[in-house]
## 1
Amino acid sequence: MSVRPLIAGNWKMNGLGSESAAQLTDLVEQASEYKDVGCDILICPPALIVREMVTLTKGTNVQIGGQDCHMNVSGAHTGDISAEMLKDAGATYCIVGHSERRTDHLETNEVVKAKAEAAIAAGLIAIVCVGETLEERESGKTLSVISNQVKNSLPSDVTAQNTVVAYEPVWAIGTGKTPTPDDVAEVHAHIRSDLKSVMSDADGVRLLYGGSVKGSNAAELMALEHVNGGLVGGASLKAGDFWPIVETSI
Ligand code: PEP
């Protein structure tokens, strides 16, 4: 089954207005050379500039997403933003359960699941992140940890259209280290098989790899079976670094 890849950039807590706008404008210009780039291109900037970035990308083949959302639609949750607010600002996707959220904000699988469901209810596509720690990998627990996260973090109404799964080994995020292609292929095949046990259109779900993806390793990683794109942190901040990664999926 052919699945349209997704190359997503996660800007995390980086970038101020004018510099972010300049990088996004460069990316849009690169992408505009293609009528159809053959993959979905997504940038998830800090929430504060989502609306501005949506304006900059209107009518282009670059989409804008959120990095997180609250599980509730509105209410007394100081400092949080809801999926509906992201949707209202023009976002189309929302990352949930990034390992930095799981660690910094003690988000459990149950919280991640509720956030994914909130994102979908608001009309966004949820990008649900899973991944093992180094300790878990070294003690041979990778596949069971991933299965547990997939089983408990995915929304109950999961479909290939409303959910993307990103495999991001925690030890590979921002470290310059990546698993071997064989290790990535093994985990992605495992996730696909887990999905098949809970949904009928599992083959259509996009499975992203994330963790120190850069121009020099993207082609090999993106070509693996069951890898349908990437979630990119550091290398998404500059259009000149991100574009070569996008190009591997064109
Ligand atoms: C991420 O933040 O999701 C990520 C994968 O970061 P990096 O590419 O910098 O490792």
## 2
Amino acid sequence: MVLSGKKILVGITGGIAAYKTCELIRLLIKAGAEVKAVMTPSAKEFVTETTIRTLTRNQVYIEQFPVRNWQPEHISLADSSDLFIIAPASANTIGKIANGICDNLLTSLVTAFKKPVILAPAMNCNMWESHFVQKNVAALKKAGFCIVPPESGELACGYEGTGRMASVDKIFNFVEEALHLEPNLKGKKIIITAGGTKEPIDPVRFIGNRSSGKMGIALADAAFESGAEVSLITTVDINKAYKVTKVDTALEMLEATKKGFVESDILIMVAAVADYRPKTVAEQKIKKENSDSLTLELVKNPDILMEISKIKKPEQTVVGFCAESENLFDNALKKLKEKNLDYIVANDISDPEIGFNSDYNAVTLIDKNKEAVDFVPMPKKNIAKLILKGIVDD
Ligand code: CTP
């Protein structure tokens, strides 16, 4: 059973979608999880405590200040659960969590919760579109909460629009993915490249790109947390508890990557490497009064992954990334073959929610046998763990 031994806390807030949460609890238990439920006082308007107690086969937690034992429940329940899923998450509860308000057991619990939290919002479409709800959802996403997007269709209030809680199956997928995050990387040496290269034009200008480096850094952090010896080669100025080599240009990145690769088990090339660089770099700042137009001659940069494929040993794993705006699967597969990769992670950049600067990502991991796994939109740090797990556990 996929969720065997997992302890899941289900939070129910006041919304008509609470009736679907009964089915979610049943699914989680069927998959082997131990489920405990916490309800807000208004959730009791929609489902009864008896229903939830019978389904979870556990006491239901509602009161913020019970006197059952010495340990405050919002701390003991938070400590003993592997994951917290709040479904439905009302606009009211979303607002409270985003602003650190702890006025009932559920909001206190989520504030004290250190492990993954998933929220499945459900509300009227006008409420969902409200500036304040969207602002709160964005703040929660930024803080690493996983949001299962509400669906469009006919709403219980009679409106048509976006606000219906996602299907129970979809929520279940999020739970499954969030719980299978920890890859075992003890004893593995990993090099990860991150950020966009900068190709100088003169002492102050360069040709760059919009890569933020966030995905590569999330991968390096996740690999480090999972026990790997990490070497990050990046154009971003950062300090980490693992080795960081700062580079600017594609040529510098090539040299650092080749040097580190010899000793490594895994290379993950997330960096957006400039395909071209200016043929010559002006020694002095280019002055505009000298000319009405400026032509830069560009020459091709070496392809780092192509160079790596020449020295790669069979026991080494090489992973490429590609950002595509169309034909994601075919373009990714072409690159996987051309660059002799073991895996490629394909990124759909047509969606602004999961693009370059976002903290969220949705990717497809494809292996040499054309086997593809889609990861639903989630914080980059969660995607990072799933990618690492996909690579090492295959
Ligand atoms: N890459 C590389 N060296 C380059 C360019 C890209 O190692 N000079 C790597 C990237 O780090 C990524 C993979 O190749 O892991 C795919 O990068 P992408 O830019 O999508 O592919 P390109 O081969 O540059 O093709 P195009 O830009 O034409 O889509």
## 3
Amino acid sequence: MYNVRKVTEDITWVGASDRRLALFENIFPIHRGVSYNAYVLLDEKTVLLDTVDAGVAGQFFENLDYVLAERPLDYLVVNHMEPDHCAMIGDIVRRYPEVKIVGNVKTFGMLSQFFGTDYAERAVTVKEGDTLSCGTHTLHFVMAPMVHWPEAMVTYDDADKILFSADGFGSFGALNGNIFADEVDFDRDWLDDARRYYTNIVGKFGASVQGLLKKASGLEIAMICPLHGPIWRENLAYILDKYQKWSTYEPEDKAVVILYASMYGNTASAADALAGMLAAKGAGEIAVYDVSNTHVSELISEIFRVSHLVFAAPTYNSGIYPMMDNLLHDMKALSVQKKTAAIIENGTWASTAAKQMRAALAELKDVTVLDTQISIKSAMKREQAKELEALADEIVKSLNA
Ligand code: FEO
């Protein structure tokens, strides 16, 4: 059965959701599924904006066939060549032999890499500022390199004032009939997944996102149609503000997240004790995570969200406990910046975790590590309560600064 929704009079959503896939990119758990959005413009010309992941091909083609209603497909615009969007290009060409493929020079290079052909006979190569007249709608092409791959571009429809934003403004989460952000409680039900999607997929490329936001600010945009998650047609300022913060690495909340690694519970106990002391001193909305039991993508999302971080971990094989080491590595890979951090280490002998965590954090831009740090020998003793209180005082002072 087809499942489509009109976005405007001439544009229809023909995407599909996958609630069976366990790991997006074979990395990220997606407990709420994921949608792959694609859009059809019916004008004097017919245009498909992007395809979908192979996992939802059947639903997508049923949708596309229904919306085209026997009309030929004139153009396929390829905004992004990652296979979660480009997987169906070969099938589109086989089903719609007249179709022309619209992309930039890099798009066709990647087409060749993925499909063994650059479809030169049907290629329409566009560059920044080029347009495609489709009748009453004219599509404008805006290059968006590294949001999220080098070939990425976005497409602006000047008739309906829609920005087809590729991965930009996307989110994990299946669409459940309500394809518009104003039809759901986005702040309650979607924001965490939108942040987790952004920070883990595009987080490294803040400068590139800033470049796209600057270009977008010159357009009159009534609607943002991303390739994942809900469409924005109201309160665009809300999501633009989030993107402004995320892409400049500014925290959303002045709050503390405590991230601990603990083999037998002793480091966890210290982390919880610190949380209690912070709360008693007035810190609110504290979050505590066991890095061994929380997927690193959720930790990264929370790290982007807040201003203050505490890292607590034992020494392991003369290094940092592996799960914490992996988190610190991921933080660097994703360009985490602008944080205040504190360190707690544990070790039964030859502790080196604090020194190594401090060195890892020193590699991040604009991350201040507090001088006060706690060293636990196997288990924290009552006599160390004063040290923990001092650390809590310093964190709260910094929070209130
Ligand atoms: Fe949703 Fe970069 O692909």
